[in-house]
Amino acid sequence: MTGKCHLIFKINAAPQPRAKIAKGVHQNRVFLILGTEMATESSEREDEGKLIGGSKHLVLDEDLRELSKNAAWSVSSCKPGNGVQSLRDDNFDTYWQSDGAQPHLVNIQFQKKVKLQLIVLYVDFKLDESYTPSKISIRAGDGFHNLKEIKTVELVKPTGWVYISLSGNDPRETFVNTFMLQIGVLSNHLNGRDTHVRQIKVYGPRPNPVPHQPFEFTSTEFITHSTVR
């Protein structure tokens, strides 16, 4: 393991020239764009823990914000030149490549407890074939000593962005409140040994700019008059 497998400092991500980002809201679901058609991830696939295909464009709920840059990132192993920095460079041509026994781990650690709602990975079965993850475990906790598995998903020949919701079965459990998130690649397609992941982003709910308000004002004038003097 080399120092390139760890990224301790915050990253100021470069502009994203290759990833087109769009936004949409539909009953708190994330839109998936497949070619020119738009579809939502079906509840049946969520229940089965199986995600088929991928999304060409990154499409997000407007109530989400990216928290990736606030964390320290590390991986369990990496090939020289294909370290953890490749997961955060906004470049689909680069990738993290593991170099060791499964499971292959990505560790995301925050200095304070944060609310996380969504993980998004960019993987490419067409290019990476047997290096493409087929089964992923998501774990959360205060640190390495008490990580607990919260979700397992199966990927079926994914090419593009893959969305993994951290919401629980209870409708009130819309996020995970944690210091650490760990993404474990348990197996690859075609019984591959090492893995390729091209991008990872993590998102949490956007904070309400007006404390103690159940809704968010969009007008500056409304925000100005939202408190009692």
Molecular structure report:
The structure is a single chain. Helix content is 7%, strand content 42%. It has 229 residues and is mostly beta strands. The protein has one domain: Jelly Rolls. A 7-stranded mixed beta sheet has the order 1-8-10-15-12-13-5. A 4-stranded antiparallel beta sheet has the order 7-17-11-14. A two-stranded parallel ribbon has the order 2-6.
Mean pLDDT: 80
> What letter string, H or E per element, gives the SSE order?
EEEEHEEEEEEEHEEEEEEH
Task: Assign the CATH superfamily.
Answer: Galactose-binding domain-like
The total domain count is: 1
Determine the fraction of residues in helical runs and give it as a percent range: under 10%
> What is the approximate shape?
globular
With helices defined by DSSP (H or I, 4 residues minimum), what is the helix count? 3
Portion of residues in beta strands equals 35-45%
The assigned structural class equals: mainly beta
Report the strand count: 17
